[in-house]
DNA sequence: GGGTAATGTGGAA
DNA sequence: TCCACCTTACCCA
C-alpha cells in the first residue's frame, strides 16, 4: 500500500479503480466506520469490510453484515487515503473507514448510501461495460456505438454505453485515435471503433495504475504530436478539446 | 488572499 | 434548462 494522500483530481473511472485497489490492499478487514459530518448513517453498517468493487465511476464497499456502501464522487467528491492511524477528521468528512493499514476519508461525494447486494446490482445494471473490468463485454460497446448517430464525444460519456469515461478521458482518447469529438458515432468504421476501445483500455489502465491521466489535449495548449494549438468547443454540453490537424471536423 | 473554472449527475423549476 | 453539491487547481493581484 502506497503512502497516503491525495490522488489525481479528476473523478473518472480510472481514479475510482485506483482507490478500489488501494482499499482492497489496505482497507479490507476494517471494523470502524464513522461519519464525522453525521450526514451518512454509519450505524447501519456493522462487521468487517470484506470486499471492494468498482464499476465505472461507482465504488462499492461490501461489509460482512451484507451492507454495500455505494459511493459516487460526482463533480467535487474527494477520497483521501492515508496510513493508519488517521488524524482527527475534518468536520466535513462524510464517511471515514479505518482499516489495519489504511484509512480513507470521503469528502463532498454526490452519493454515499447504504445498499445491499441487490441494490448494488441494480446500480450496475444501469451501466455499460467498464473498460477496466475483466468482465467487460467489448462487442456490446461496439454495437452500441454503431447504433447511435450521436457525436462520438457524447456517446463515450454515456455511462449506459460504457462506464467510466468523463470529459478528460474522452478528449485524450479521441486525440489518440485521430477522431474529432463531433463525429457521428455511427460514422466510425469498425477498425476505428476497435482501436478506440483498445486505446481507451490502455489509457485507463495506465491512469488507474498511476492515479492520474497523462493528458494529450485535455486542457493543454498544444497537440503533443505536432505542436498545433488545441481547439476547444462545446460537444454535448461539455468543453471538448481536439487537435485540428489530427482530428479534422466531420464533413457536414 | 480572492475570484473563477473544472471533473458528473440528479433533482427542481 | 438551470441549480446544487461545496473541493481543488490555477490565475491574478
How many strands in all?
Answer: 10
Major sheet: size, sense and barrel closure? 4 strands, antiparallel
Shape: elongated
Number of distinct helices:
6
**How far apart are the first and last residues' alpha carbons, in Å?**
51 Å
Alpha-carbon Rg, integer:
19 Å
Q: Considering DSSP H and I runs of 4 or more, what fraction of the residues is helical?
A: 25-40%
Instruction: Catalogue the unreliable spans.
Output: none
Based on secondary structure, the structural category is alpha+beta
Sequence of strands across the biggest β-sheet: 1-6-7-5
Order of helices and strands: HEEEEEEEEHHHHHEE
- For the residues shown, what is the average pLDDT? 93
β-strand percent reads 15-25%
Please give the structural blueprint.
Layout: H1 13-26, E1 32-34, E2 49-55, E3 58-63, E4 68-72, E5 78-83, E6 93-98, E7 102-107, E8 111-115, H2 117-125, H3 138-146, H4 152-155, H5 167-176, H6 190-210, E9 231-235, E10 238-242
Antiparallel strand pairs: 1-6, 2-3, 3-4, 4-8, 5-7, 6-7, 9-10
Helix pairs in contact: 1-6, 5-6
This protein binds a DNA duplex (13 and 13 nucleotides) through residues 6, 9-12, 15, 57, 72-78, 92, 107-111, 157, 159, 166-168, 219, 238-239.
Amino acid at each position: 500500500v502506497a503512502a497516503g494522500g491525495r490522488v489525481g483530481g479528476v473523478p473518472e473511472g480510472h481514479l475510482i479503480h485506483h482507490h478500489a485497489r488501494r482499499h482492497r490492499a489496505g482497507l479490507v478487514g476494517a471494523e470502524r466506520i464513522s461519519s464525522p459530518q453525521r450526514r451518512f448513517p454509519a450505524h447501519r453498517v456493522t462487521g468487517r469490510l470484506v470486499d471492494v468493487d468498482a464499476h465505472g465511476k461507482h465504488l462499492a464497499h461490501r461489509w460482512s453484515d451484507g451492507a454495500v456502501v455505494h459511493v459516487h464522487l460526482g463533480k467535487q467528491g474527494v477520497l483521501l487515503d492515508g496510513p493508519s492511524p488517521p488524524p482527527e477528521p475534518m468536520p466535513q468528512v462524510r464517511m471515514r473507514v479505518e482499516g489495519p493499514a489504511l484509512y480513507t476519508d470521503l469528502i463532498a461525494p454526490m452519493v454515499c448510501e447504504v445498499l445491499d447486494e441487490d441494490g448494488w446490482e441494480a446500480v450496475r445494471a444501469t451501466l455499460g461495460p467498464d473498460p477496466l473490468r475483466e468482465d467487460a463485454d467489448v462487442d456490446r460497446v461496439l454495437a452500441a456505438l454503431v447504433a447511435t448517430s450521436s457525436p462520438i464525444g457524447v456517446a463515450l460519456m454515456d455511462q449506459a454505453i460504457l462506464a467510466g469515461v468523463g470529459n478528460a478521458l474522452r478528449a485524450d482518447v479521441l486525440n489518440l485515435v485521430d477522431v474529432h469529438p463531433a463525429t457521428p458515432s455511427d460514422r466510425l468504421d469498425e477498425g476505428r471503433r476497435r482501436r478506440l476501445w483498445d486505446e481507451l483500455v490502455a489509457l485507463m489502465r495506465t491512469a488507474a495504475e498511476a492515479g492520474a491521466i497523462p493528458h494529450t489535449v485535455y486542457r493543454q495548449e498544444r497537440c503533443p504530436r505536432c505542436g498545433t494549438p488545441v481547439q476547444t468547443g462545446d460537444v454535448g454540453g461539455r468543453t471538448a478539446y481536439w487537435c485540428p490537424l489530427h482530428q479534422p471536423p466531420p464533413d457536414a
